[in-house]
């Protein structure tokens, strides 16, 4: 086989928003020569067995995130590598375009207490990759400053130079960096498949019970961006290719 056959879930708002048909599943055929795995902001030194210092506040790693990275994203990457799919990492960095007057820097400072001018200055455990999910030498690493991985980066060129048409996406978080990246991917005519059990977002006190912020983010992707699938379905699709 020269393609992955992956069930892609989407959400139908027809015939009316008040009375939608809801979820449907389409079997997607993803060519091995035009598909890539995209990891969005799967960084931070907190996913290895040994504890990491300097990760607190919004950068604290909880058990849910550890489970997603170690038990789902890592096996997904291994499965993608086994069938020859390129792996592209998006990661934040402190770009030279950020100064004390930058509105994004000041937004971060007043809302989260994080001053990227100091807290993102390398080396920092905030932006390091844990060994369990660090890029390999032949992976593509694209650095970004803002939420979307397409904003003022080489991501689009890196994908098009490799003939990529389909993006299988995992990482964080489903509303901000990953969420805006996949919207920008749609604008550039990529077909997007987010592995919905390989993403999460921070929950407000009002949404924490039930995980409603992440629920809405996934529903938004299924209605307005592309498809979702699961880590298990992706690995099964890769295993079928490998066996063939």
TrEMBL record:
Example GO molecular function: hydrolase activity
Signal sequence extent: none
A Pfam family it matches: Isochorismatase
Domain of life: Bacteria
Gene3D superfamilies: Isochorismatase-like
Keywords from the named record: Hydrolase
InterPro entries (UniProt xref): Isochorismatase-like_dom, Isochorismatase-like_hydrls, Isochorismatase-like_sf
Domain Isochorismatase-like per the UniProt entry, residue ranges: 62-212
Chain segments annotated as coiled-coil in the UniProt record: none
SUPFAM superfamilies: Isochorismatase-like hydrolases (SSF52499)
PANTHER family: ISOCHORISMATASE-LIKE DOMAIN-CONTAINING PROTEIN, PEROXYUREIDOACRYLATE/UREIDOACRYLATE AMIDOHYDROLASE-RELATED
Official protein name in the record: Isochorismatase-like domain-containing protein
Organism whose genome encodes this protein: Jiangella anatolica
